[in-house]
């Protein structure tokens, strides 16, 4: 089976260095929480993302939760959210007791940010598949950027996660800088926000000698996970170069087959090559058929959040979200694919697709 993410190959890349370092850590570390390795990795991430601060958290989801708390979002507040992503992009809003007001994605799959009419305490902007939303078009004083998928991508020539009052990263095993399981980070430039984030990830208080100064959540980082991120960062440039190579190959071959590939934004976003999406007639059916031929694809994503009665007050259709929910299938494109595997992916797509899968329209 050609795996969507062959996680054991991640281990082949990072395993030796990680186990060497973690053995030393277990023998020497007095403090298992936010200590030397955490700080080292946070500095590297801040630099890579052109930010003054980076703070590790126990997941990207926790990072979103903390951004909302640091933005002062309280129960009953409204937050502008995307109608199409993984649930992590919107569930923290709900968990805080705030209300998401949903907006559609653009035809490139990232959140549409023009024409936002509703008043809201904050906007959580989510870029998907590797691209950012059109960040310069946002007219809102509190932009919280869910940049989990666009780490290593750029917007207007700058790292995409450098946009927004705060932004987050995820180190989930399917991300550009993956580790075993997941981890996260919150990024910002403002000193007051930085102080709040640091305390909020630690249940809102500094130590037992002082009172509780902030609302918070238990997301304080651990040294051994920071080490994992450190090891993965050593391979990031090579993985990115390979991601691009695979992306270019898949684009060329699929275009020859008249398969619709997720379009490149018409604004200044350069993808991180996080995911490769194609449009087929029925994505679940296609996924099941191609799996029988040994290729694992994924149906990211399957919800129009605006239609979910649990989290939406105003159930309704969303033009591009509904198109993506029905048609957008992600195919293997991880940096660990061999050339032969890339060719097999193309051969099997050719084998299972029928004429309804060709030229699926995103517009119209
Ligand atoms: C767009 C987006 N936001 C948030 C997250 C949540 O990250 P994590 O899995 O680290 O909680 C993910 C991860 O899949 C994601 O893709």
What report would you give on this structure?
This protein has helices spanning 7-28, 36-48, 60-70, 91-96, 191-200, 223-233, 236-256, 283-291, 319-327, 339-352; strands spanning 53-57, 78-82, 99-103, 122-126, 143-146, 154-155, 158-159, 166-170, 184-188, 260-261, 269-270, 276-279, 328-331. With 364 residues, the chain is of the alpha/beta class. The protein folds into two domains: 7-100 and 109-233, Type I PLP-dependent aspartate aminotransferase-like (Major domain) (Aspartate Aminotransferase, domain 2, 3-Layer(aba) Sandwich); 236-357, Aspartate Aminotransferase, domain 1 (Alpha-Beta Complex). Helix content is 35%, strand content 14%. Residues 59-61, 85-86, 88-89, 126, 146, 148-149, 170, 172, 182, 184 line the site of pyridoxal-5'-phosphate.
